[in-house]
Amino acid sequence: MTRRDQRVAGVKAVERAVQNDLVQKVLVAKDAEDRVVRNLLEACKRKGIEVEYAETMKELGEFCGLRVGAAACAVLKSPKGTIE
Question: How confident is the model at residue 84, as a pLDDT?
Answer without folding.
Answer: 46
